[in-house]
Design a protein that fits this description.
119 residues; mainly alpha; two-stranded antiparallel sheet; two-stranded parallel ribbon; 4 helices; binds zinc ion
Length: 119
């Protein structure tokens, strides 16, 4: 449990300002490292591209994840590089599955229409 540095009022751990005097609780704000929201979005999109609908979330996951990784590399106070990287990897996996599916579908059509002659 935290106490206000200004007036000593007991505070909840999540309070950003003192409810009694309005003094900002800077110690709490600094102690919680930020995880990049786009890194989390990239991971969610990467999973969505594999589970819910193909290709589009995967492509967005790669773009958003790479943007997040660049921002995280620039700012050491932002965390989530491994989350963003996982999103990018899942995005590429999703794209690879779609591309493999297209190749198999085209090959299947090609064989069924007799474009290839097996001898
Ligand atoms: Zn206070």
């Amino acid at each position: 449990m935290a106490y206000c540095a200004n007036c000593g009022t007991q505070l909840s751990d999540t309070a950003s300002t003192c409810p009694s005097c309005g003094h900002p609780q800077q110690v709490v704000a600094v102690a919680v490292p930020r995880t990049d929201s786009q890194a989390i979005a990239a991971l969610i999109l990467g999973i969505a591209g594999l589970v819910f609908c193909p290709l589009i979330p995967s492509v967005i996951a790669i773009i958003v994840g790479n943007q997040a990784r660049m921002r995280i590399a620039d700012d050491p106070t932002i965390r989530g590089d491994e989350i963003a990287r996982a999103g990018v990897i899942l995005g590429w996996v999703g794209v690879s599955i779609v591309l493999a599916g297209i190749v198999f579908a085209v090959a299947g059509f090609a064989f069924s229409f007799g474009w290839f002659h097996l001898r």
